[in-house]
Amino acid sequence: MEFQTEYEFMLPKGYIDNAGNVHRKGVMLLATAADEIFPLNDARVRENPEYYKVLLLSRVIKNIGEVEAISPKIIERLFAADLEFLQTLYKCINASDPPMIGAICPACGKEFMHVINFSEITF
């Protein structure tokens, strides 16, 4: 099994760029220690601790649609539902265990655990 460091996702609402284009599909990277530590030194976080999540997400999101330079300003412009989704995704992929969900086979009724694929979730 290959070690996964990138996770595709689909935003519930989508990022709207300056031209009015909606971008929903993206990629989040597995966080490093630096991703979690460096934002703590930012003056914006000392002034408003909630800003930490904006800086953290801007470090670990590789792209949203065709937008590849993910800055804090882009994260600020996301809808609240998308911000909440990305925070949940971050917590899931950076946990010790892969994100799983219980499921039941419709054919045989057997219960099993299934790894969640965030790119297949539809809203």
Topology, element by element:
Blueprint: E1 6-16, E2 22-29, H1 33-37, H2 43-47, H3 51-60, E3 61-64, H4 72-76, H5 80-93, E4 100-104, E5 111-115
Antiparallel strand pairs: 1-2, 2-3, 4-5
Provide a concise account of the structure shown:
With 123 residues, the protein is of the alpha+beta class. The chain is built from five helices and five strands.
Number of separate structural domains: 1
- State the separation between the terminal residues, measured CA to CA: 30 Å
Order of helices and strands: EEHHHEHHEE
Strand order of the largest sheet: 1-2-3
Protein structure class: alpha+beta
Number of strands: 5
Helix content: 25-40%
Approximate shape: globular
Number of helical stretches of at least 4 residues:
5
> On the 0-100 scale, what is the average pLDDT?
91
Largest sheet: 3 strands, antiparallel
